[in-house]
Design goal:
- By secondary structure, the protein is mainly β.
- It folds into two domains: 129 residues, M1 Pyruvate Kinase, Domain 3; 74 residues, no CATH class.
- Helix content is 12%, strand content 35%.
- The chain is built from three helices and 18 strands.
- A hairpin with an 8-residue loop joins strand 8 and strand 9.
Length: 253
């Protein structure tokens, strides 16, 4: 794997605070733009309601930014935003169209509007036995990595392009979370995450989404410098709630 020559933050040793939560995001409908939160509840699947709904193509694939065994590339989904209704429970995800209309995801109107806009028959379904997450239930990234990518591409990079669930504000520059893989991360007083390998990125990081332009292509730069990895995969060890400003404490064996 390529490494950053500009990493300036030392690898933590023992039990240490490595950052604070600066952004929380969930995506109630996979591959759409999502919603930012001041606090988020995590169960063993990840952020509650994150990617619980998916857009399905006529052959049963899950619409995404890429084509694979599970996924089918469908352009235009990130022009739509998904949020959770405050009053409608688990089926209260809302889909917001580029022209300003709002639909409940479980309504025929949502399916019809999405199919017409994207030019193919599509359906909206909740997750069942086939997971909607690409590689893991939680995606975490640091602002140090985002600053590193900005230096690689020679332009400011909006952290929301990473589509991470949790952004930790950290000091310095470099892919510092690489050194955390295999450790546990306690966030706030309740939640503990197990940190896995780096998160492989795809063409979605180079595509604009609602309110987030993609001015500087970054996928090729990540490929040259960091094996197209950005941030870490994570899973929930202990459930609970996290909030903006919570400290993140890393336990390294």
């Amino acid at each position: 794997m390529g490494s950053s020559a500009r990493q300036t933050v030392p690898t933590p040793v023992g039990d240490s605070v490595v950052g604070v939560v600066t952004l929380l995001t969930r995506f109630p409908v996979k591959s759409t733009a999502g919603e930012t939160l001041s606090a988020a509840t995590l169960d063993h699947r990840g952020l509650v309601h994150d990617r619980h709904w998916g857009v399905y193509t006529s052959d049963g694939g899950i619409a995404s930014g890429k084509t694979s065994r599970r996924f089918r590339k469908v352009a235009g989904l990130m022009d739509w935003r998904s949020t959770m209704s405050a009053t409608a429970g688990d089926h209260g995800a809302l889909l917001h169209s580029p022209d300003g209309n709002t639909y409940r995801v479980d309504s025929p109107a949502a399916t019809e509007a999405l199919s017409q806009a994207l030019g193919q028959p599509l359906t909206l379904r909740p997750e069942t036995t086939v997971p909607h997450h690409d590689d893991c239930g939680v995606h975490l990234i640091t602002t140090s990595s985002v600053r590193e990518v900005a230096q690689l591409v020679g332009n400011r990079v909006d952290v929301r392009r990473s589509r991470a669930n949790i952004v930790l504000g950290t000091d310095g520059t470099g892919f510092i979370e690489d050194a955390w893989s295999g450790a546990e991360l306690a966030i706030g007083p309740e939640v503990v995450l197990g940190l896995g390998p780096g998160m492989p990125r795809c063409v979605m990081v180079d595509q604009p989404q609602v309110d987030v332009p993609a001015d500087a292509p970054m996928l090729k730069a990540l490929g040259r410098a960091h094996d197209v990895l950005l941030g870490l995969q994570a899973h929930v060890i202990r459930t609970g709630t996290i909030s903006l400003g919570d400290e993140a404490r890393l336990t390294v064996g």
